[in-house]
């Protein structure tokens, strides 16, 4: 809660309005579920939505991946997060650092982040805004929502389109061969953890000499 925080950063009026809507809807949410057929895409507090196969990283893992991305993007670097909102949120906490970041995400609740949010559906991997130029990101971090060859293959098209070269992929250990085939990435020693334990063993993959090894 924001009460006892004196140094709250000043938010734009647009963001403030969105936040107020947020809290209001959070209060109304329980009542709405029954009467109006609750709209899961309304901006509520952004919790995991399992219907969208969302699982947030633990705080420690998100911090670690965010640090790695900043390091590898370099000064003034550009970072793209594909279906990896918890890393995006960690990156945004490091305000004032010299990098920029975009979030490509299917869940429109993340549109509260304004222009950095890009609606993304892996079924249409190159259906991207014109201002997302090819090979314009120093590093792309991706966490495809499903452990399927199709999902990885399509997300890989987006990754290869956006990255200048560096790729940091997070997906199940079972996808190791597919990840090598579609993206040329190798498994790191670093083991990503989630805030809730997943049944599938989860790993990170990179195509450069990484601090995660």
TrEMBL record:
<dbReference type="InterPro" id="IPR041370">
    <property type="entry name" value="Mlase_EEF1AKMT1/ZCCHC4"/>
</dbReference>
<keyword id="KW-0808">Transferase</keyword>
<dbReference type="InterPro" id="IPR029063">
    <property type="entry name" value="SAM-dependent_MTases_sf"/>
</dbReference>
<dbReference type="GO" id="GO:0003676">
    <property type="term" value="F:nucleic acid binding"/>
</dbReference>
<dbReference type="GO" id="GO:0005737">
    <property type="term" value="C:cytoplasm"/>
</dbReference>
<dbReference type="GO" id="GO:0032259">
    <property type="term" value="P:methylation"/>
</dbReference>
<dbReference type="GO" id="GO:0016279">
    <property type="term" value="F:protein-lysine N-methyltransferase activity"/>
</dbReference>
<dbReference type="InterPro" id="IPR002052">
    <property type="entry name" value="DNA_methylase_N6_adenine_CS"/>
</dbReference>
<keyword id="KW-0963">Cytoplasm</keyword>
<dbReference type="InterPro" id="IPR019369">
    <property type="entry name" value="Efm5/EEF1AKMT1"/>
</dbReference>
<dbReference type="Pfam" id="PF10237">
    <property type="entry name" value="N6-adenineMlase"/>
</dbReference>
<keyword id="KW-0489">Methyltransferase</keyword>
<protein>
    <submittedName>
        <fullName>EFMT1 methyltransferase</fullName>
    </submittedName>
</protein>
């Amino acid at each position: 809660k924001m009460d006892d925080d004196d140094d709250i950063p000043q938010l734009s009026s647009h963001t403030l309005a969105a936040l107020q809507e947020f809290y209001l809807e959070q209060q109304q949410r329980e009542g709405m579920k029954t009467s109006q057929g609750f709209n899961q895409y309304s901006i509520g507090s952004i919790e995991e939505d399992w219907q969208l196969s969302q699982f947030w990283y633990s705080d420690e893992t998100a911090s670690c991946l965010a640090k790695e991305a900043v390091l590898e993007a370099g000064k003034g670097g550009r970072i793209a997060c594909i279906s990896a909102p918890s890393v995006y949120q960690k990156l945004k906490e490091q305000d004032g650092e010299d990098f920029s970041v975009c979030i490509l995400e299917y869940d429109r609740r993340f549109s509260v982040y304004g222009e950095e949010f890009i609606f993304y559906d892996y079924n249409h991997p190159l259906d991207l805004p014109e201002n997302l130029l090819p090979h314009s990101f120093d590093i792309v971090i991706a966490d495809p929502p499903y452990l399927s060859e199709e999902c990885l293959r399509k997300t890989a098209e987006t990754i290869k389109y956006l990255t200048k070269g560096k790729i940091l992929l997070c997906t199940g250990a079972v996808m190791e061969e597919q990840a090598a085939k579609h993206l040329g990435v190798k498994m790191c020693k670093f083991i990503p953890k989630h805030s809730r334990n997943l049944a599938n063993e989860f790993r990170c993959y990179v195509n450069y000499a990484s601090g995660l090894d």
